[in-house]
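Proteins fold reproducibly. Consider a sample protein:
=====
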Amino acid sequence: MTPPGGTPAGSNAAGPGAAGSNAAERGTGSGLHRVAHRGYSAVAPENTLPAFVAAVRGGATFVEFDVRTTADGVPVVIHDRTLDRTTTGAGHVWDLDSASLARLDAGSWFSPAYAGVRVPTLTETLSLLAPPGPQLLLEIKPPATLPEVKTIMEMVTAAGLADRTIVQSFDPEVIRLVRGAAPSVRRGLLRLRFEAGTIPLATELGVVCCNPSTADVLGDPDTVASLAARGIGVMPWTANDRGEWPALTDAGVTGLITDHVAELTGWS
């Protein structure tokens, strides 16, 4: 995400908004969903396979990651619009074909220990996360066309992960495309901040979670409660200040999106 209930890791059961469950319920066991932001990105380069492996080992109940599409139509896992910050490449992701992207180093910027780590494709990521374990919080980054969204949703379904995935976006139009392409897959709405239209929009989109910044949760717990009353959970980003965790949970959130998922596992 950009400054963005169910079961614990080890379970196949669906989370917030699944049939027979309350979207506002927290994860079982610890009582709080532990969402690994771009994987366990405090210890491994974000949005890479090592970060996802570390997230599973760190007790994540959700693994969050970002999807964009290359020039030749291949969904890949990367946050930024451009390649510059997290790879040895430059320019927009959508201007590069998948073969060229696969040659880039996506680990050295984080640590020499991760030199040679690549930008994973969505197929590789889904394959890694397919065994029983955490659920997936998949953010589709705009711009995204209907054919691109359909391809992403077909991949999620083909991997057998439709019931374990929430697809979210900051862009309401992307969520509408997801609803049209795969109406049974749970959806989430990301917000930079709570606004007057947040609750009506979340209701219209039929989302199971509305995920704002931590500052908005702390500053507006009434909106969290109003969303919960409508069966919509709240998992704020990016909860890296451990001193805020008690206040965030007291506000009624269903989960925390954090770079420090193992620490959250220990705390919760």
Q: What stands out?
A: The longest strand covers residues 62-69.
